[in-house]
Amino acid sequence: MINSPLNRCYSTLWMRYNSLAVSCLSLFFAAQTPSFATSAPPAEDSLSVRSGRLVSPQSISSNDTVSAQKLRRIVTANALQALQGQVAGLLVRSNSGEPGGAATLQIHGPGRFGDTTPLVVVDGMIIGQSDNLNWLTPNSIESVEVLKDAASTGLYGMRGSNGVILITTKKGTTGAPRVNLDVYTGVGRASQGPQLLNTRQYIDFINDSRSNGGLIPAFKLTNQSSLDTLLGTSTDWLGALMRPAPVRSAYLSVAGGNESARYLMAADYFRQDGVIRGSDFERLSLRLNTDFDLAENLKVGQHLTVGQSVQHANDGASGRTPIELAMKSAPYLSITNPRWVGGYNGTTYLDANNDTPNPIGLAALTNDRRTALNLTGDLFGEWTLLEGLTYRATLGFDVRNADRVYSRPAFNMGEYNLNLTASLARAKQTNYNTLLHHQVSYTRTQDVHSFGILLAGSRQTYRSDDVQASADNLPGNDIRSLTAGQSSRNRTVGGTYGFYRIVSLLGQLSYDYDKKYWLTAAIRRDGSSRFGPGHRFGVFPSVGGAWYISKEAFMEAVPYLNAVKLRAGWGKTGNDNVGDFQYASLIAQNYNYPFGPTNSFLGVGAFPSTLPNPGVRWETTTTSNVGLDVNALEDLIKIRVDYFRRRTTDLLVEVPLPASVGAEAPLTNAGVVDNSGIDLSLAVQQSTDLITYSVGGFASWQKNKVVSLGERPGPAFSGLVQEENVTATAVGQPVGSFYGFRREGIFQNRTEIINNPSLTGTEPGDIRYADLNGDERITDDDKTFLGSPVPTFYYGVMASVSGLGFDLSVLLQGESGRQLYNATSYWLYGFQGRYNAGTQVLNRWTRDNPSTTEPRVDASGTRNFRPSDRFIENGSYFRVKSLQLGYTLPKELTSRFGASHVRVYVGAQNLFTQTKYSGFDPEFASNQAVAEGIDRAQQPQSRMFLGGIQLNF
User: Fold this and answer.
1) How many Å apart are CA 863 and CA 344, to the nearest integer?
2) Which residue in 213, 199, 279, 283 sits closest to 242, CA to CA?
């Protein structure tokens, strides 16, 4: 390892940690007495240790657990996506419909300005936040527990502020080998896209736009022969880009064991094509979980997953998505044309400056192949030293090797889009994540008293190493050697190295009296290498309690309430996911400095590009919550209600500096954000001799508000769309609110323009913006807040019924109170007046059609495309997320061929969506809270139909 000051510092830190841990353990063992060894064994409903924490049999938290059966309702390559609509307080969205793409998860609203992804723990191994978990199949998961309240997330200290998701995979059981096979196949289709102009409409639109901009019309309608040639083709580019997208999956597992050894072996294959050409995802994973009882008091085991995935991505070109390219493409062009190198058509310099690349040609000719190999798991040993006293050591690892190859052959798509020589780019990245965890726990029950204590220490290290290289001017399209670039000027290379370490100590104490009163308290101390000396360590306390009211004598008068429990908690957590070396100054090299009386001499030098902030530290979240659980009518009805209040302080904020400083401003811990809300859950379940039915659901209300930005003089802007920011984070508003002008109609004549404030160059037919500050001018000072992408309400409903061998389940979910910024509609409204547009421009303002809703089009101006409420839409939606019908064959029949269980099923996903949003899909997300809710024409989710079979032997 490199002998850097940071590593020497952390070697000292780790030795101090080991010394402290050994001292704590020595004191702990010294305090034990022989009487503990002879105490009665703990009752089955006593305290236990699970996932590195003390857990009460009667939950004192608001955590939710999702079973494997519920996870399999959703067909997805990403296990976290399967949580959508199933957990109160957890908002799950797909970033896009791209196969193998990431999901965005958020617990109780955005608590910071950056990434709000919860911490993910798989079988005790803390997974890096950059991992989208598409290597883990939902079939391999036994359960997922979502930690939301203060007492639970506080146990994770500096990394618990966004909440925690604990994933437990399936394990072996005693008995004869059990074989499970689950196979399904299906097909997905994209939802209906916008209606675009045909060739005749496009020609009129382009000519009108250029005429309004003072330009010569692009199409001379007097030349009937040329016009007939153009009108002979009207290509549906969106329809050509989309395709049916098959999906197929097969999962096979074998589990068994005896009293001293248990095992589970599993293999999974998954492949899904994207609804957009050129995109697909394929995964093969193997899993082995074992545990062995080496002695009566000694247990060892391991969890191991090896997964390889291959993803072909279609990202479009130059920051423009394939859908954007398809919407902008000229309809009079055919898709292919043998005239051009590569065989795909494109525009010429005579075609109204429409420089859109052929999206079908790009999908066919370019290759963006992303391969990933994951090795994730742990080795553990558990030693029961005395009755109730257990020591456990775990060594966890998560290694990811990623390789991306991007190649483009030589082609011409018309005269605008030329790739004169073949090019090749390659990037390789390796991430190492290792965890060493020690814990000792003691639990005891005596009479009506139960208590437990847990002491733990851990060290986790992240390392990343990546290199990128590219070359062009290759001698042939099939060359895959970067050195084949014909000169060094045609080759580039770069790379980065990252290192990060966190060390932790945890102490937790739990107590309950007569299974009626529970109390738990914990304190955690974390140290992170991301912060400078003197600011690396933080202390995070938490406390929680519960009162089982229904066990009180006075509740005997209410027999229909068989369980009533009041819960409360308070705690502090942190967030160190703020980037590395914020406390240090970054030096930029290879800059020219002019010297001499005429600045004619240039010297190469370096300068500090970022000013340091030695005092930067972690962001801190303080959460308080109170909840009530009620079970009524012999557990027929279960109700849970929780109120939470969360304040995050010390958020990193950039305070602007004068441009004369010549460097970026440092980040300071100054921001404050509040989140509060209510989670309500309801479940009803009953069985008869013939059928079993259950209905459950949740509703979550939340409120988000920025309280402070420190010394920053105004809002922090983000969300860049066409070189203008469309979101702003400001005091008193939700994080990342939309920001722009309000419209007051359309100018119908010059008299209105003269008598009202307007933008420079405004003509009749242009939008009239509101002069909110009353200075008789339209400037950026007239911009205001237009809505928020943070929903105020979201919900999920799960219902199932089974009987006579049949089973039917449905999952409904949705969001309300959310606005979206439809940046895709820039093109549908005719931005820049040189690309194809949506049919809404047929109602545009003209002198013959003085529209009051659609402004004129102008190829020379963007006045009608300033950020405004024109692009704000209602993003609320209701969706039938999943519907599944199955039939289980009678055992009398299946036993004939040795099967214990056979079930066939058919299902649908994203079957129906009710929304007022005009885009492809109202469900999309960003991993940055300050730029959420902007529709950039991402690949939409597909409506999927499938069928499958499940076999157990």
Assistant:
1) 35
2) 279
Dihedral pair phi/psi, residue 365, rounded to 5°: -95, -35
CB within 8 Å of 671: residues ≥ 6 apart: 113, 648, 649, 650, 651, 652, 653, 706, 708, 709, 710
d(CA 313, CA 427) in angstroms, rounded, equals 15
Full-model pTM: 0.90
Half-sphere exposure of 126 (CA within 13 A, CB side): 24
Three-class DSSP labels, 793-833: EEEEEEEEEEECCEEEEEEEEEEECCEEEECCHHHHCCHHH
Smallest CA-to-CA distance from 494 within 517, 519, 468, 518 is with 468
CA 753/CA 524 separation, integer angstroms: 65
Angle between helix 224-231 and 199-212 (nearest 10): 120
Element (H, E) at 215: none
Q: Do 149 and 544 contact (CB within 8 A), yes or no?
A: yes
Q: CA-to-CA distance for 883 and 881, rounded, in angstroms?
A: 7
Q: Residue 900 to residues 691, 861, 893, 926: CA-CA distances in angstroms?
A: 21, 71, 10, 45
d(Cα 337, Cα 457) in Å, to the nearest integer? 66
Q: How does DSSP assign 18-57, residue by residue?
A: HHHHHHHHHHHHHT--GGGGGSPPPPTTS-EEETTEEE-S
Q: What is the pLDDT of residues 127-150, one digit of tens each?
A: 876 667 888 888 999 999 999 999
Separation of first and last alpha carbons in the chain:
50
Q: Which residues pair with 568 in a beta bridge?
A: 545, 626
Q: From the centroid of its chain, how far is CA 9?
A: 34
Contact 30, 389 (CB under 8 A): no
- Is the pLDDT at 664 greater than 50? The verdict is yes
Instruction: Compute the half-sphere exposure of residue 70: CA atoms within 13 Å on the CB side of its CA.
Output: 24
Residues whose CB is less than 8 angstroms from the CB of residue 73 and which lie 6 or more positions away in sequence, other chains included = 82, 809, 811, 881, 882, 884
The C-alpha atoms of residue 636 and residue 166 are separated, in whole angstroms, by 28
- The structure tokens listed for 194 are 């916008």
When pLDDT is averaged across residues 240-247 and rounded to a whole number, the result is 96
**Nearby residues of 600 by Cβ (< 8 Å), 6 or more positions away:** 594
Side chain identity at 806, as an amino acid letter?
Answer: F
Asked whether the beta carbons of 695 and 796 are under 8 A apart, the reply is no
Higher pLDDT, 171 or 599: 171
Domains in the chain, please, with CATH? 46-179 (2.170.130.10), 735-948 (no CATH)
156 CB-contact burial (10 Å; exposed 0-12 / middle 13-18 / buried 19+)? buried
> Nearest CA to 434 among 875, 816, 126?
126
Angle at alpha carbon of residue 426, lines to 422 and 427, rounded to 5°:
160
E strand or H helix at 198, and its extent?
none
pLDDT digits (tens, 9 = 90+) for 635-659: 899 999 999 999 999 999 988 877 7
pLDDT for 605 beyond 80: no
> Which tokens go with 494?
């770069």
Residue 75 to residues 91, 99, 131, 187: CA-CA distances in angstroms? 18, 11, 19, 11
